[in-house]
Amino acid sequence: MPNQVNEFNAYRSRMNEKLLGSNNKLIKRIFNLDTNAFTEGALDVKTKELLGLVASAVLRCDDCVKYHLESAQQAGANKEEVMETLGIATLVGGTIVIPHLRKAYEFWELLESQEG
User: Fold this and answer.
1) One domain, residues 31 and 46
2) Cβ atoms of residues 8 and 114 within 8 Å
3) Which of 69, 93, 107, 112 shows its CA 20 to 30 Å from the CA of 8?
4) 108 and 77, same structural domain?
5) Are 66 and 110 found together in one domain?
6) Alpha carbon of residue 65 to chain centroid
7) What is the predicted pLDDT for the residue at 104?
8) pLDDT digits (tens, 9 = 90+) for 72-97
9) CATH (domain of 100)
């Protein structure tokens, strides 16, 4: 079975390089703003990634959900924290978020299977 986590990351990296390589000032500034928003500040990185996960789930962006799941895991989030975060996202976003909740849970399982 292909490694979906690695495939997602490879695709994301390849396409980001192409987008940034187009030398569009606006796109470069948006990417920079996004990167800087998730650095340590008054809130720690894990908290910011979990907030990003809520927003991504509510906005129903599966790629964003995957990105924030992996980033949250790298920042030290555990399954209980992620599930509580996804619960809040489902509460805020409503039942339309449930299909994205399923995909998020599946991707989290893939991330967990790669640990250790």
Assistant:
1) no
2) no
3) 93
4) yes
5) yes
6) 4
7) 97
8) 999 999 999 999 999 999 999 999 99
9) 1.20.1290.10
Which residue do the tokens 């908290």 mark?
A: 47
d(CA 68, CA 55): 10
Q: How far is CA 23 from CA 14, 41, 51, in A?
A: 15, 29, 30
28 contacts 20 by C-beta, under 8 angstroms: yes
Q: How far apart are the first and last CA of the chain?
A: 19
Contacts 24+ apart (CB under 8 A), 70-76: 70/5, 70/9, 70/111, 71/38, 71/45, 72/46, 73/108, 73/111, 75/44, 75/45, 75/46, 75/49, 76/46
What would the pLDDT profile of 33-75 be if each residue is shown by its tens digit?
999 999 999 999 999 999 999 999 999 999 999 999 999 999 9
Give the whole-angstrom CA distance, residue 24 versus residue 10. Answer: 22
Do 56 and 96 belong together in one domain? yes
Contact yes or no for 56/97 (Cβ under 8 A): no
Per the structure block, which two tokens stand in for 41?
């500040």
